């Protein structure tokens, strides 16, 4: 998933900018907020690279420059996350990317919806939400699970093994389990241990 974030983020920022270009009166500096948890170094790097790539290609924003406004937040502290979002809004960000944690993302989303600021996410979320200002780059679990069903059918697998780490993992595969149904061919389902030793 890390490599997909690196590839998708520049495309999303490009789409955001192209939508802004329709106004024909972009400011010289366009600030984009990024909320990252301490363990999200790869996401922050992808975000910074996306901003740098867009700034390097003068055909995208010939008269404007993107500036990344990075904030580090705790994954479980929605109060301070909200304060950081308000700080980003006070300096005039055009959009906010992140965070990854569901504990803070919902609060950030609520503020962005209220202020009508685009909120970009790249995280697994089982809920199908249609907020006006939210764009989630991560495929919805049902869509992803249906893709797994298509793979199994395409390859003609009659029996296979599902290995997952936590309960979220098995929820992500519910469509695959339903599609296999009550066939005479067994599916083996195994949860990995918490020890990290997967031998």
Automatic annotation (TrEMBL):
Annotated signal peptide: 1-25
Spans through the membrane: none
Highest taxon, organism lineage: Eukaryota
Main location: membrane
GO MF, one example: glutamate-gated calcium ion channel activity
Keyword Transmembrane helix assigned: yes
Compartment(s) where it occurs, according to its Swiss-Prot or TrEMBL record: Membrane
Keyword tags: Membrane, Signal, Transmembrane, Transmembrane helix
This protein's record includes keyword Protein biosynthesis: no
Residues covered by the Receptor ligand binding region domain: 43-193
GO-annotated cellular components: presynaptic active zone; presynaptic membrane
GO biological process per UniProt: calcium ion import across plasma membrane; positive regulation of glutamate secretion, neurotransmission; positive regulation of neuromuscular synaptic transmission; presynaptic modulation of chemical synaptic transmission
Entry-linked Gene3D superfamilies: 3.40.50.2300
The name this protein goes by in its record: Receptor ligand binding region domain-containing protein
